[in-house]
Amino acid sequence: MLLAAAAVKVCALLTAADIAAVQGENPAKVRESSPRHDESRCFFALPTAAKSVSVEVTRGARATEFADRLRVAAETEGEEAGEHEEPAVQRVPGVGDEAYWAGSGGGLYVRRGETLLRITLGGEESKEAKLSKLRLLAGRALSRLPK
Q1: Which domain holds residue 22?
Q2: Which of 14, 43, 74, 125 gets the most CB atoms within 10 Å of its CB?
């Protein structure tokens, strides 16, 4: 399974049209990196730097372990949040096998099988607006992710 991680071309999971549909601009630069054998990243730099988009794919045991930590954090924080507080990690239904919003720049984490996809986007929008855009991008990325 670890060899399959290297085969993921993370920058091919989203197109310029996908990015423009949610951020209103085409990427000016696209930069891919693979810091680890089970992880790949892509940064879509937009003309308005604050609107840039980042995608990360982690596969195998690390992805499963991280998804488990997100699940526990969402359950724990959901129980501990006060009446007028939003938990930092929240479950997002209807995306992948499971998905979580991690506030404060964490973005959307989506697990499908032993693959964890993380998408972040810049901009000064509300959580709801960002989640709407992230759901769209996640759906497009998952449709292109090798099984």
Answers
A1: 2-144
A2: 14
Cβ-based burial of 25 (10 A; exposed 0-12, middle 13-18, buried ≥19) = middle
Q: Which stretch of DSSP H or E encloses residue 3?
A: helix 2-7
The CA-atom distances, in angstroms, between 92 and each of 26, 81, 87, 105, 147 are: 27, 17, 12, 16, 22
Distance CA(147)–CA(145), nearest Å, equals 6
Kindly tell me the number of DSSP H helices and DSSP E strands found in the chain: 4, 7
Instruction: Show the beta-strand stretches assigned E in 3-146.
Output: 29-36, 39-45, 53-59, 89-91, 98-102, 107-112, 115-121
* CA-to-CA separations, 20 to 105, 138, 144, in angstroms, rounded: 20, 14, 18
Instruction: Find the DSSP H helices in 47-126.
Output: 61-80
Q: pLDDT tens digit string along 82-108?
A: 666 777 889 999 999 999 998 766 799
Q: Total domain count for the chain? A: 1
Please indicate whether residue 75 or residue 56 has the higher confidence score (pLDDT): 56
CATH number at 41 reads: 3.40.1000
